[in-house]
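Entry for flavin-adenine dinucleotide complex. Fields follow.
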Amino acid sequence: MASELQTDCCVVGCGPAGAMLGLMLARQGVNVTVLEKHDDFLRDFRGDDISPATIEVLDELGLARDFLALNPKRIQAVEAHTPGGTIVLADLRRVRTSFPFFAVIPQWDFLDFVTREASREPNFRLLLGTQATELIADRNRTQGVRCRSGAAEFEVRAHLTVGADGRFSRVREHARLPLVVTAAPIDLLWFRLPKTRQAAQDAISIHLGGGHAMARIDRGSYWQVACMLTKGSAKEVEQAGITAFRDTAARCMPDLARAIAELRSWDQLSVLSVQTNRLRRWYGPGLMCIGDAAHAMSPIGGAGINLAIGDAVALASRLAAPLQRGEVPVRALAAVQRERAWQVHFMQSLQAPLTKAYLLAADSDPGRLTSFVQRAAPKLANLPGSLGLRSRVTALGLRKAHVAAAARRYPAPTVSPGDQRTVMRQASPGTSSPMTGSPGISPASSNPPEV
Ligand SMILES: Cc1cc2nc3c(=O)[nH]c(=O)nc-3n(C[C@H](O)[C@H](O)[C@H](O)COP(=O)(O)OP(=O)(O)OC[C@H]3O[C@@H](n4cnc5c(N)ncnc54)[C@H](O)[C@@H]3O)c2cc1C
């Protein structure tokens, strides 16, 4: 067993929640070590749309200008095309915010950006290629984690350990925190279509009909498409064959028929299993879970990243000062859950009926009642007043998260294009030791995509 590393806060997982938490704590003078099991952030099947609420958080951190300089695609509306007509689900231009758009950018670019900013802080440390394997507990209190990096094993000891390790969180599993499964699980078929001559689209479009519910987003050079299916039916769709799938997809999105014809084999599609859940209690002595580790979100409604980052803002604001004194009051952790959980419950309780409504609207063989609902839904959804409310919740959530004054920076520091990320990759055997903190820049690698 190798040596150990001491830090104030050990964050397991460098997704949106972990990266932002690391940045905000480091800015407030807390020594923070973030562990990420992959060597880089190059993974597909992640949320790529950064909501106005998150851009506002970046603005308070003095980073919105540099983030927007990365030139994300700006999406201003979400529309559903149903057999009964078009429903504008959200129109961000109606929302009072300085950033009335989703900034669509590959999640790895967002995480690179945040960790590069965090690396400016001397007390921020990111260990890439380092997996937390179990919690260290002493007298009922979490004291850190055991980790593995290549053949090396070591401990990271901390006053506070944060599980920001996503929907399959090992931290929450080891902590035995009680989990509740929420909305009905669904399958997603996820694929890309080439962009031919279609004009650029500044809306996320959801196409319902012909038995399928498909969402598509313009990613500049290609379309990213997600097809939603009831749980377990992906196998049936696959058995029916790619030609049958192409036909239904083309009926669902006739304007993309030519691009859909390019789908020739199932290798071009990925099946993702989605389920949503949440912890009853997000914390224990010396331990807190945030983001998908505390509440796995379905992609429906696109709220996961914003909620994960809101959790990070709340935790950094409430815990930075106690952590500097080496304290982690359980009541402060409970207060973070209280501040955040009702918003999560609300968004999850919207996702469940929304998922059902999509599947109902997509029904290709509706009974009389379903067919009546399909015709009436657009009229009801387009009633005055409701669009404004939906747009606001989609853009900003229920309550805006505000960054603690000590973590804010203004004016924004300028990022020069050649700026290099100064993160550490966990040293592999034979190279410098992570315990001494000798940095090595992470090599670019192409991990297979994971959900
Ligand atoms: C297909 C799909 C599409 C989605 N689309 C959207 C969308 O458009 N908009 C939106 O807002 N949300 C979307 N979501 C949800 C969104 O991606 C998540 O809610 C969000 O990423 C949660 O962030 P997080 O930081 O909590 O967890 P994650 O993003 O899951 O990050 C967790 C990190 O922890 C690392 N990790 C895991 N275990 C360990 C370990 N033991 N040791 C070290 N590191 C570890 C992982 O490698 C990962 O980098 C989508 C989800 C899916 C599956």
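NOTE: The pocket of flavin-adenine dinucleotide is lined by residues 12-18, 35-38, 45-49, 131-132, 164-167, 170, 188, 190, 272, 291-293, 297, 299, 302-306, 308, 451 (CB under 6 Å).
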